Amino acid sequence: xxxxxxxxxxxxxxxxxxxxxxxxxxxxxxxxxxxxxxxxxxxxxxxxxxxxxxxxxxxxxxxxxxxxxxxxxxxxxxxxxxxxxxxxxxxxxxxxxxxxxxxxxxxxxxxxxxxxxxxxxxxxxxxxxxxxxxxxxxxxxxxxxxxxxxxxxxxxxxxxxxxxxxxxxxxxxxxxxxxxxxxxxxxxxxxxxxxxxxxxxxxxxxxxxxxxxxxxxxxxxxxxxxxxxxxxxxxxxxxxxxxxxxxxxxxxxxxxxxxxxxxxxxxxxxxxxxxxxxxxxxxxxxxxxxxxxxxxxxxxxxxxxxxxxxxxxxxxxxxxxxxxxxxxxxxxxxxxxxxxxxxxxxxxxxxxxxxxxxxxxxxxxxxxxxxxxxxxxxxxxxxxx
Length: 385
Prior knowledge:
The chain is an alpha/beta fold. The protein has two domains: about 130 residues, Aspartate Aminotransferase, domain 1, CATH 3.90.1150; about 240 residues, Type I PLP-dependent aspartate aminotransferase-like (Major domain) (Aspartate Aminotransferase, domain 2, 3-Layer(aba) Sandwich). The strands form three sheets. It has a seven-stranded mixed sheet, sandwiched between helices. A three-stranded antiparallel sheet has the order 9-10-12. β5, α6 and β6 form a beta-alpha-beta unit. α1 packs antiparallel against α8. The radius of gyration is 21 Å and the shape is globular. The two termini are about 30 Å apart. The model has no long low-confidence stretch (mean pLDDT about 95).
């Protein structure tokens, strides 16, 4: 049976080159990077090289990179660590209604623990404006968190402009770059970003490893205590193999971006054009300020879960939103925040493309999907036949 993977926003396969770079640190160079003998020193050398590589690729200093176990941990560390570190200066935090749950749930947790949080609304494309951020900032605002690009609908936020606004206020600015790292150009030497979180498995690296950029001078209370690793900012024996793999994956992604992004963008646009020919179909998110691999649509009169099951039976892997909420029957909080009704939001489909996808894949999906949508609508009592 044909098998087509179109859920790269959820995760990506580890590239062979990445696995090859990781392998020595599972066996020969297995030492604890905190140990002073030769095995430990060699592991620490691999850790230092990876840190140098990642920092150099994003315009940061090596000492500004803190390794974590995931993008979610990095986001938790950014919000909770910054909030507690700055609580003597204020207790107001600003974020948006369309953030990943790693940010939203951290903000809600902080709200339950004495902080005040403003959740900014977004427009119909899922964007928040720098003016909205400026209007929401108060004398007691200590942190603003706005994602670089949305994981569900692909809308890219104006983080450069928002960062400038936040810098003027003296607050810290965090951005969740999980979906953009290795895809969009990120140069932290030119951006007013204090904290930036990302995860290896979104750009063909291993699962279980992420990182947080912490600009020099930013005070951050640690989430994990019990060791001096990561300059006392994140205790625990480092996952050297995973960190080495993340560095290699990011190196490859940046090196190939100039060729790969236009190729993927062309496939994305071909897919969007074909899907818009299906009646009662809405494209979600911005058409101009959009991730190059993201296609998000809603089909009226059908349920997204049924759509996914039918696609799977025809060998197509997709999602109805973010992977972290795919097990829920609740409509996407992102789509609801963009003004969609519950009924329409329930019929959402996210197709996200990757290195392996070809024009033949696009043609296969566009051949199969209209029939699936038609059959599901025929079974819906809401559909006017």
